[in-house]
Amino acid sequence: MPDARTAWEPDVLGDGYARRTLELADDDEGPVVATLVRYAPPAPEAVRPARAVVYLHGWSDYFFQTELAALWHAQGAAFYAVDLRKYGRSLRPHQTPGYADSLDVYDEDLEAALAVVREELGAHAAVMLMGHSTGGLVASLWAHRHPGRVRGLVLNSPWLELQGSSVARTVSGPAIRQLARFQPRAPLPNVDPGYYARTLRDREDGAWTIDDAWRPVPSFPVRAGWLRAVIAGHAQVAAGLSIDCPVLVLLAERSLFSTRWTENMRSADIVLDVEPLARRASNLGRVVTVVRIPGGIHDLALSAPGPRAVYFAEIVRWVAAYGWS
């Protein structure tokens, strides 16, 4: 009989969705969990898929992109998403939201999730890993350190370099490391004006509901220890990774940064500069496909209907060529 804390239970996303708490080792703040979300709509015949996708969300975020789950389900893959420790469904009152002092710590979250996938689909099921933004960085570093574990890596606007490219990382890195050494949880000035949140919430074409506690405006405070960990991850990407599976990197066609709101922000990445991300993509592995989505925003799955459809179509096309092989 499974532990009640680790059994599947109905999820906030409604019909077809269930969640399972993954117990992890305690850290210096106390008990830690991750949460695995599964999309398994009722079917006439219960056939166990031979393929699965595991999705990792970005910073100050959680999984709610139901159309993405439906896309992978239509491709015959079981879909799972992980709310990483201290995010979304996994955030507990005693914890610093989103905080980690090393990206390697998420290995435990991923291993716990993959263990459940293997438990449900069998040891030989083909698994593909997908990550958005910071989740894309985490997924890339994990795949580099764990060759042979997944069949493919799909990255949605992965945060592969600090804003302003390696120059900004080189200049800001020492100051961040010094602050993180003595005050790792010190919050840095919050420069989020809420424009990106506006592109997600203030619209009529979004088939999603966003939980303001799990994806707040402004975002969770960025803390020195966490940013030090991210910068260290960027340095690893800059030095070159050796991901052994095919990689698909999807980016918006352009970025747009402004101190004042403009409607053009609804059709560009206003969170990350896509140009250094595109350049860094070639450092990930031997087989990397880069696709730019005209009119796409930072989370391409939440773009306007036209760019969103292109984004989904490009994933399907890439999977036909490289996925699961």
Strand order of the largest sheet: 1-2-3-5-4-6-7-8-9
What is the count of structural domains?
1
Q: Give a count of the beta strands, DSSP E runs of length 2 or more.
A: 9
Inertia-based shape: globular
Major sheet attributes: 9 strands, mixed
What is the percent of helical residues? Answer: 25-40%
CATH topology: Rossmann fold
In CATH, what is the homologous superfamily?
Alpha/Beta hydrolase fold, catalytic domain
Q: Which band does the percent of strand residues land in?
A: 15-25%
What's the end-to-end separation, in Å?
36 Å
Tell me the CATH architecture: 3-Layer(aba) Sandwich
Radius of gyration: 19 Å
Secondary-structure-derived class: alpha/beta
Secondary-structure element series = EEEEHEHEHEHHHEHEH
> What is the tally of helical segments?
8
Low-confidence stretches: 165-171
What is the CATH first-level class name? Alpha Beta
Give the gist of this structure:
The protein has 8 helices and 9 strands. The protein is of the alpha/beta class and 325 residues long.
How would you describe this structure to a colleague?
The protein is α/β, with parallel strands linked by helices. It has one domain (4-321): Rossmann fold. 32% of the residues lie in helices and 18% in strands. It has eight helices and nine strands. It has helices at 66-74, 106-121, 134-145, 165-182, 195-201, 224-239, 274-281, 305-321; strands at residues 9-10, 17-27, 30-39, 51-56, 78-83, 126-132, 152-156, 247-252, 288-293. It has a nine-stranded mixed sheet, sandwiched between helices. The longest helix is centred in the middle third of the chain and has 18 residues, at 165-182. The protein is globular, with a radius of gyration of 19 Å. Residues 165-171 have low confidence and may be disordered.
